[in-house]
Amino acid sequence: MVSGVGFILVRHGQQSAGFHVDPDPGLDKTGVEQAAAMAARLGADDGRLLFTSPLRRARETMAALEVRWGRSATVEPRMAEVPTPGLSLDARGHWLDGFLRGDWSDQPDYLQAWRAGIAAFLTGLERPAVIVSHFVVVNAVIGLATGDSRVTPSMPDHCSLNRFELRDGAFHLVEKGAQRKTVIG
C-alpha cells in the first residue's frame, strides 16, 4: 500500500439536465465556465495523474484541465456516478432523494460493491492525481475519510476541489471543497 499520496476529487461542473431527465447530460454554459475556473485554480501542470468518470459532464469538466495542461485524462469507470440498474429516468429522481438521506449501512450489496470499487481505485494510486467525478463519489470518499456513514456527509459545489491524502492505507480529508445548498441530479 502506498502512503502519502495526495489526490483531488473534483465534482463535475453544472450539468445541462437533471438525473431524472437525461442519463448522461453534458455541461451547460455555467458548467463550462466553472470547469475553466477550476482548471485555472489548479494552475500549471505539475505532473499529477488525471482521471475522469466516463460520463459526459465529468469528461467535459476535465476537458478544461486537459487543454490547460496539454494532455489527456484516463477514463476510469469506477469513478462514475452511483448506479441505478433497472430504474427509469422518472424513477431515478425519486430513488435519489431517499438514497441521499440514507446511511451506507442500509444500502444493498451492489451499492456497497460500487463504493468498495471507488476505494479500491483510490488506494491503488501511486502518484498524486486530479479526478473529476460526481456528488455521490465525492461524498463516499469524504465518508470513508472521516468515518461518517451517511451517504451525504457533505454538499460539494460544482467544480469544488476536495483534497485527500492516502496514508498508511487510509483516506484522510485534507480540505473540503466549496460547499453550497445545491440541486443534486
TrEMBL record:
Superkingdom of the source species: Bacteria
Xref: Gene3D superfamilies: Phosphoglycerate mutase-like
Matches recorded under SUPFAM superfamilies: Phosphoglycerate mutase-like
Residue ranges of coiled coil: none
Pfam families given in the database record: His_Phos_1
Protein name: Histidine phosphatase family protein
